[in-house]
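[Automated response] Your request has been received and processed.

Submitted sequence:
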Amino acid sequence: MRILKKVVSLALCAVIPFTLESCSDEGGEEKVTSTTQVSSIESTTESKEDLLARVIEANLLENLLKRNESVSFKTEYDGESTTEIYFTFNSETVRAVDQNLYYAEEHLIVVEYKDMNLLSVNNGRFGVRAFFDMFGTKEENEDTPWYNDTIAYPLINDNLSLREETDEYYIFENLDDDPDDELYIQTVCYVDKQTLNIVKTVHDNDGYVVEDEYIYNEPNELMNVLDDWSGEMKTVTVVYETYKDGNPVTYTEEYEVPYSWEVVADNNLYDTPAFSVYLDEGYTQEYEYPGDGIDYTIYVTTAMG
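Generated structure:
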C-alpha cells in the first residue's frame, strides 16, 4: 500500500515526501468539508467508473499543470522538514524538493529538470549530477516524467471508488477492500468538484493516520531555483573512462549549464566502481572547480579509484 511506500521513500532522502500527522479519520474529513450530506445540487449522471477515470486523467501532473501554476505538499517527520513542489519551466515539468535534515544538520535542494538531477547542499553552489553508472545505458526520453502519476497515485493503485458526492467534493474510498484483512488500510481521497484537483488523501492504518494535503498556486521560492537557466550559460564536457569485460571504454557527454553552476561526478548506484576526477587527460591534475563562466572538461576514470 502507498502508506508503506512513503515511509521508505523518506528514509532514502529527498525523494517523495508526504504530510504526516496523527488524527482520527473523522477529524480529517471535518478539516476538508463542513458537510457530509449528499449534495442538494444535481449529482453527476456518469457512471462511477467513468468519473474515476476522468478524475485520474485530470490529476496526472501533465494535466494538473495545464490548469495550475504549481502543486506542492509538505512534511514534518522525525527530524525532517520537507517541501516538494511541481511546476513548469521552459515548457518542462520540474520537480523540486527542499529538505532540512535536522539530525544531520543538512539542508538539501534537489531538482529534476530535463532528465537532469540538480543538487545544492547547505545553500552552496548548484551542481548538475553526472551519474556515471548511467553512461552508455540511457534510453530515449519518455514523453512524460516518471512522477507523472504521483498525485493521482491513490486513485490509480488503492482500489478506490466513489463513496459520496457533496456540494464541494467527490469523495473516493477503497470500499471493496476487506477491513478484516491484516493488510487493510482505509484510504479516502477528496476531489474538488469544480477544479477536479485532488485536495487531500487520508490513509488510516489501524489508527495510524497519514494525511496528504495538496496546495495549488501558492508562491514558493523553490519556483525560482532555475532562474539561472534563463541567463548566461557555459559548456562542461565530461569524459568518462571505465572498463567492461576487462576492456577500457570511454564515454563523452556535454552539459550546458548556467555560468555559475558546476557538473558533479556522482555514483547513482552503490555497487558501481569507485572513480577519480581530474582536469587533464593524463589524470595528473585533481579536480577543483575551474570558476564561473568558463567552458571546461573533466576527466573521470574508474582505473584510479
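Summary generated for your ticket: The mean pLDDT is 83. The first helix runs from residue 2 to 11.
If you did not submit this request, please reply to this message.
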